[in-house]
């Protein structure tokens, strides 16, 4: 009868309303979760920059340095670093110096000169590891440091590297604590988000 029809209609409206409210509540919960996740990731966002220079104002001396600085608000886990010079992919600054800067007709000759100067305690270079290094917010890692000095051989190498640093490129891949990863390119300062950091060659 008509009364039963009205009762069923009311029950159906109530049921539909419950479903709509449930779906809306689920949507709000999912949206709030997404907002919270983005907020949490933003609170630990690292921002790595690659810097290089040839002067140390602290002691008024000519010093070549290459530094990774974290200007973000979260720790940066540096996974990989690749150096490119003269079309070659290199593993460290010593390989760069054996291409651009030491004396000798062949790479082996130039490597031998660098080794000899190091063994003679004439060449003083400070290096630190970059791969798998954790850089805290507002902290930095100077991974290469080379003071000019007075020795003619060292001065020639220093001057050559000072010029070569404008022709080389360094690409670093780093991640946040949530495994969000980026690459940064020294020459262009272009930062690009990537799915993961590629495994470096040995």
Q: How does this structure look, described?
A:
The protein is of the alpha+beta class and 202 residues long. Helix content is 37%, strand content 28%. The protein contains 4 helices and 10 strands; from the N terminus they run H-E-E-E-E-H-H-E-E-E-H-E-E-E. It has helices at residues 2-42, 93-100, 107-119, 152-164, and strands at residues 48-53, 63-70, 76-85, 88-90, 125-127, 133-135, 140-147, 169-175, 181-185, 191-194. Strands 3, 4, 6, 8, 9 and 10 form a 6-stranded antiparallel β-sheet that branches. Strand 9 and strand 10 form a beta hairpin. Helix 2 packs across helix 3. It is rod-shaped, with a radius of gyration of 28 Å. 17% of the residues are buried. The model has no long low-confidence stretch (mean pLDDT 86).
Radius of gyration: 28 Å
Number of strands: 10
Main β sheet profile = 6 strands, antiparallel
Segments where pLDDT lies below 50 for 5+ residues?
none
The string of secondary-structure elements, in order, is HEEEEHHEEEHEEE
Distance between the first and last residues' Cα: 84 Å
Please state the oligomeric state of the protein chains shown.
single chain
Proportion of residues in β-strands? 25-35%
By secondary-structure content and strand pairing, the structural class works out as: alpha+beta
The number of helical segments is: 4
Arithmetic mean of pLDDT: 86
The portion of residues assigned to helices is 25-40%
Rough shape? rod-shaped
Give the structure's gist in a few sentences.
The chain has 202 residues and is α+β, with helices and mostly antiparallel strands. The chain is 37% helix and 28% strand.
């Amino acid at each position: 009868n008509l009364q039963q029809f009205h009762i069923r209609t009311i029950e159906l409206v109530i049921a539909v309303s419950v479903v709509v409210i449930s779906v809306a509540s689920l949507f709000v919960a999912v949206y709030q979760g997404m907002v919270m996740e983005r907020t949490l990731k933003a609170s630990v966002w690292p921002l790595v920059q690659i810097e290089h220079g040839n002067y140390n104002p602290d002691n008024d001396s000519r010093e070549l340095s290459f530094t990774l600085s974290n200007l973000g608000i979260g720790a940066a886990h540096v996974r990989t670093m690749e150096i490119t010079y003269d079309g070659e992919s290199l593993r460290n600054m010593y390989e760069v110096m054996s291409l651009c800067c030491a004396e000798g007709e062949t790479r082996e000759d130039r490597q031998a000169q660098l080794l000899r100067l190091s063994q003679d305690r004439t060449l003083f270079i400070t290096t630190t590891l970059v791969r798998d290094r954790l850089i805290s917010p507002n902290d930095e890692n100077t991974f290469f440091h080379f003071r000019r000095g007075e020795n003619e051989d060292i001065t020639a190498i220093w001057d050559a590297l000072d010029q070569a640093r404008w022709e080389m490129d360094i690409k670093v891949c780093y991640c946040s604590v949530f495994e969000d990863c980026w690459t940064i390119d020294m020459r262009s300062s272009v930062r690009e988000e990537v799915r993961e950091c590629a495994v470096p060659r040995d």
